[in-house]
Task: structure prediction
Amino acid sequence: MRFRRAIAIAMSVMVISGGAITAKTEAVAVERAALVDQGEQLASQIRTTTARGEYIRALIAHDQPAQDGLDAVLAARPEFISALATLRTALVNADGKIDTAVHRAAALATQETVRAETRDATTITNATATITALATKIDAEVKAWQVAQQSAGDGRLSTSSSSDGYARVRAALDRVGGGGVGLYESSSCAGGSAPACANSNGYIKYRADVGDWSESRINWAMAHELGHIYQFQVWGALNDSSAYYSLFDGDPEFLANCMALVRGYPGSVGCDGDQQIWASAIWVGSVR
Result:
């Protein structure tokens, strides 16, 4: 009897122990599952963080050239601003001496180009060179004007025509921007068949009867001939330009007409918008 009781108690203990072990095993399994889930979540977070890091690095690498370009543009702008100050001084000095309308227009267009540029420092450097060239050109024209004013008497280079006729032609040439350009009366232009002509050495000749023309016609004639003077200054580049031939058929007379027109002195020959834009650049020494 006692033996059977002992066996029963032993069996009872085994059952209890087995149940406890089973419960513990299940608890461990649950905990393990939780740890595995946490591990997977952590791995997912690491993958997400890594992907974000790679994306950010890619963005930085992509934007770096643009940032470098902007830094270079900002570094180039002070020199441009300095060139503008020099040009401003030249314009003030030229006031009342020469016509600077075309120079001002070119400077404003260049300034707008710089204002819009945020990536290419070369554009700013080229613009600085353009502004510097404009200032130099204005200074040279003012000096030529001063030399002309200091020449003998009223600066007249010929005495064979009437003073009134010469005065009218001289005033017209000054008015259209040729204050520093020499002026001669001569009947030698195209053997006398042409009323006026320009010489590559930088002076203009006119026939005596030009002095009797209307003011608007004299203005146009002088603007036209002054256009030739500016053509001579870029003659090589002009004749190498394909646009010169496509827009003007390589005709310097047609181009001079358009140059006079854009300066505000139209003749009998018209020019379209593209021709006017191209012709205006010759006034500032540029062949596009």
About this structure: The longest strand covers residues 182-185. Strands lie at 182-185, 196-198, 203-206.
